[in-house]
Amino acid sequence: MNPAKIIGIILIAAGCLGLAYGGFSYTKETTGVKLGPLEFKVEEKETVNVPLIVSGAAVAIGVFLIVGVGRK
Question: What is the pTM of this model?
Answer without folding.
Answer: 0.70
